[in-house]
Amino acid sequence: MRISIGSDHRGVKLRAELVDALKAAGNEVADEGTFQTESMDYPDVAEVVAGKVSKGEAERGILICATGVGMSIAANKVAGVRAAVIQDEAVAKLSRQHNNLNVLCLPGDALSTDAATSLVKTWLSTEFEGGRHARRLEKISHLEQHQG
Ligand SMILES: O=C(CO)[C@H](O)[C@H](O)COP(=O)(O)O
């Protein structure tokens, strides 16, 4: 799978560990940084990862900051992106089955490497169920196109 992954300064270590695990599992991984531990602005990375998913240059995106919240707010501003903070295996599965979540936002401060790796594996391997859920996502797309 083609995956774009990014973090701010608070997610550098976890991102590096996830990049290794994703590559080892055979994924094509675009690591968008940040590659520095100095403070930076998470919307700059969210724009790159969400933009790639929006344009179809990546099938899925993963974003990490301290809470995952800022990344999800920023990523959801990009057309066609469905992003959410997830830190629970069952919700990770449902976020794919029901919401076709295409950008996973992780709270780097709250997850161990093992927990994050397992969560990402579950999220990547779970398919969207379609049906009634597709109808609901169409309504969300309509909101995106006709807001205000
Ligand atoms: O979680 C985040 C946004 O939701 C950021 O990682 C966090 O706000 C960065 O804070 P600081 O500049 O104090 O390191």
Element layout with pairings:
Elements: E1 2-7, H1 12-24, E2 28-31, H2 42-54, E3 60-65, H3 69-75, E4 83-85, H4 89-97, E5 103-107, H5 113-125, H6 132-146
Parallel strand pairs: 1-2, 1-3, 3-5, 4-5
Helix pairs in contact: 1-5, 2-3, 4-5
The structure holds ribulose-5-phosphate (5RP).
Short description:
This is Ribose 5-phosphate isomerase B. Keywords: Isomerase. With 148 residues, the chain is α/β, with parallel strands linked by helices.
Helix content: 40-55%
Query: What's the CATH architecture?
Result: 3-Layer(aba) Sandwich
* Count of extended strands: 5
Number of folding domains? 1
This entry's quaternary arrangement is: single chain
Helices, by number, come to: 6
Strand content: 15-25%
Structural class: alpha/beta
| Ligand identities | ribulose-5-phosphate
CATH class: Alpha Beta
Our measurement of the CA-to-CA distance between the termini, rounded to an integer number of angstroms, reads 36 Å
- SSE ordering: EHEHEHEHEHH
Please outline the major beta sheet.
Answer: 5 strands, parallel
Q: What is the fourth-level CATH superfamily?
A: Sugar-phosphate isomerase, RpiB/LacA/LacB
Radius of gyration: 14 Å
Characterize the overall form. Answer: globular
Low-pLDDT stretches are none
Taking strands numbered 1, 2, ... along the chain, how are they ordered across the largest sheet? Answer: 2-1-3-5-4
